[in-house]
Design a protein that fits this description.
The structure is a single chain. The protein is of the alpha/beta class and about 325 residues long. It folds into two domains: about 5-180, Rossmann fold; about 190-325, N-(1-d-carboxylethyl)-l-norvaline Dehydrogenase, domain 2 (Orthogonal Bundle). The protein is about 50% helix and about 10% strand. The protein has helices at about 15-25, 35-45, 65-70, 85-95, 120-125, 130, 145, 160-170, 185-205, 210-230, 240-255, 260-265, 270-275, 285-300, 305-315, 320-325, and strands spanning about 5-10, 30-35, 60-65, 75-80, 100-105, 110, 115, 135-140, 150-160, 175-180. Helix 9 runs parallel beside helix 11 and helix 9 (about 185-205) packs parallel to helix 12. The termini are far apart.
């Protein structure tokens, strides 16, 4: 029989809750940490979470607002707070992390203040002995579909192949298939940068454009992601895989994509403040657009889609003007890296 864990899932948004439910169904003893008491109460009393509408959660899944309680005795820890809060949450959690725990990050994004990936942030917080077994989980996986047990494939990258295999075993179910690799940089960047391209695809759709434009955004977006990834030490082969192309296709085309929705509304003429005011979930691409632009400058990588998305989101540029500038750039050969 496969090993079972005392598992702690740190972050009770839609994705954290879906992963907690998955692990509980898999047979692990799971506790979910929520910052909001009302969310913990909903999980414990009604087996539901307002961030994951319509999902019936396993009765054995328990929630708490205490990090010490959540992490007590945990041999598997999943960090899944929004990327801009990972440092503060996991700094508070760190004293309660067991020395032999397997830590898996499932947050997709870059820390804006430092431009660090989540593995780099956690490297500054958790002991080296823990980080030696650190893993990242990413790939095309809408939370609501995972909660509904739709067949889903993801990738788990580990500091070592052995760590990735251990995490793979912990998450594998008949409807959730995990592949492994050891390219932490590529998997982290794929999961982060695709959110910026999802904003771009939504903007194009909001402007009224169709499949031709979407195909261009996805393909050239992947080229930009690959260029930056390779410049930062990632493996080229990661980006055509689940963490790159797989997640990119999902978030650029799926109606459940928060980032695509934000982009669509921007393309329709709404302001970012108007859009964010009535969203209860975080659209990571808004912050990632700023971080990705800074990384492109730092590494001298040309990322024209990222640049235009940044100008739309953070400088109020007209989406129509941004698209026109992209299309009228100087003609050139197709370049991938």
């Amino acid at each position: 029989m496969s090993k079972t864990h005392r598992a702690a899932v740190v972050g009770a948004g839609a994705w954290g809750t879906a992963l907690a439910a998955l692990l509980a169904k898999r047979g692990h003893d799971v506790t979910l940490w929520s910052f909001e008491p009302e969310v913990a109460d909903a999980v414990n009393q009604r087996h539901e979470n307002p961030y994951l509408d319509g999902a019936d959660l396993p009765e054995q899944l328990r929630a708490t607002t205490s990090l010490a309680d959540c992490l007590s005795g945990a041999s598997l820890i999943v960090s899944v707070s929004p990327s801009q809060f990972v440092r503060s949450v996991m700094s508070e959690a760190a004293p309660h992390v067991a020395a032999d725990a397997l830590v898996v990050s499932a947050s997709k994004g870059l820390e804006l203040s430092s431009l660090l990936r989540m593995d780099e942030v956690l490297d500054q917080i958790l002991p080296a002995s823990v980080m030696d077994r650190f893993c990242v989980l990413s790939g095309p996986s809408f939370a609501s579909e995972v909660a509904a047990e739709s067949p889903t494939a993801v990738v788990i990258a580990g500091r070592t192949a052995a760590a990735a295999t251990s995490a793979q075993e912990a998450f594998q179910t008949p409807y959730f298939r995990a592949y492994t690799n050891t390219d932490l940089i590529g998997v982290e960047l794929g999961g982060s940068l695709k959110n910026v391209m999802a904003l771009a695809s939504g903007i194009a759709a909001g402007l009224g454009y169709g499949h031709n434009t979407l195909a261009a955004v996805i393909t050239r977006g992947l080229a930009e992601m690959t260029r930056l990834g390779v410049a930062m030490g990632a493996e080229t082969t990661t980006f055509p895989g689940l963490a790159g192309m797989g997640d990119l296709v999902l978030t650029c085309t799926g109606s459940l994509s928060r980032n695509r929705t934000v982009g669509f509304r921007l393309g329709q003429g709404e302001t970012l403040d108007q859009i964010l005011a009535d969203m209860k979930a975080v659209a990571e691409g808004v912050k990632t657009a700023e971080a990705a632009r800074e990384l492109a400058v730092r590494h001298r990588v040309e990322m024209p889609i990222v640049e235009q998305v940044f100008q739309i989101v953070h400088e109020g540029k007209s989406p129509a003007d941004a698209l026109r500038e992209l299309m009228l750039r100087a003609p050139r050969p197709e370049e991938w890296s």
